Amino acid sequence: MRVRIFGQQIALSMAALAVVEAAIFFSVLLAVGHLHLGVEFPALERTAGPLWPRALLYSMAMATCLLALGLYSARQRARRGGVFLRVLIAATICVAITATYLNIIRDPHFGRVALALATMSAAAVIYLLRLSVSRLLDGAALKRRVLVYGTGGRASVISQLRRRADQRSFSLIGFVQPDGEALNVAEARVLRPAGGLLEFCQSRHVDEVVLAMDDQRRAFPARELLECRMAGVAVTDLLTFLEREAGRVWLDVFNPSWLIFGKGFRRGSLRAFTCSLLDVIASVALLALAAPLILATIIAIKLEDGWRSPVFYRQARVGLGGRTFKLLKFRSMGINAEADGEARWATKRDPRVTRVGAIIRTLRIDELPQILNVLRGDMCIVGPRPERPKFVEELARNIPYYAYRHCVKPGITGWAQLCYAYGSSEQDAVEKLQYDLYYIKNSGLLFDLSILVQTAEVVLFGKGAR
Asked: What pTM was computed for the model?
């Protein structure tokens, strides 16, 4: 089962875990705070004011840090060591955020020792909790029992959801073969109801029927599906199911009418205002925080290639409405990397990349100058990544619906960057387009903030960089 939060479909198990952990953070800081004031500052315990606002701030900061490190993501595959490292980094950042806030408001009652003690206690509890409930999160108790009506090419797409992350919120009961439909799924998974569809769903405790017929004009089971719907069994079309479970628009079974009549695509003046506000605030904040890093990168490039060598690299990219603009990046390749003027995909261990370039590409530092593109209005902080005109021309010719990703401004980071590795081929472009279409359909301020926060894991752990 999934719930919609910030424009994303989150597995109920992960949402429940986030609520439980937030309650733990709140309770630990509250307990340590009372103990600290009672022992160290007994005279101030009554005048310190309520501790719950501090505990609430701490709980929100810790939960946000865990989200940023990918610990509430269904795609997280880190093992025990990786989880421990992420919890440790999240706790360290949380201490810094909370301590800074307490210093700003000049709170004399809650000391650094108490804050550190609360954080260590909370981090230990959270790590042990995750080790103990990892199997429970993937258990059947919180999953929807799903029956697929169809066995043809469209239904076979569901069989591609094999990863544990893909099946975190549902359990596939099997497939029902309509009369005259081909068999493109494993025959062992095909079920043949003896009675009606509703009776079968009730006997197997089915929560949801996914309609995945290849041809719905022939032998469409309208009466049986209506009976299921009236009895409380959810009925969902295949595209909506795949969007919800995979976080992308599945092009293999896509039809334009689903987008035309579906929800989403909010493009009002309020959305434009909040997007612009986020771009300005985030850009100014990033420039201020990254100023030392930007200066160090400039010096490193100059030291490697000479003081007269160019630091920045301007490259034509396709933006909103198919218009081109000059994208600004730190130069990570040799000065004559494309002397012949031929655009090429970046590859793993690309020989054109310099030593400094390899580092700044891994850490995504080469993208920082694009903040100026955002302030200039060419890009947004969050959106589909802009491609070069030559690639766009080829991809639009070979990939249906590719041009629709240009109905919004491109971004420095985006949903596709979180969900898919670095793209360096036409097939990669197809995969990323599916995530871009999902973002365009579900975009909103809270979704943008969520993507921005989760980008921290991509930067810290170098995911998808080349």
From this structure: 0.83
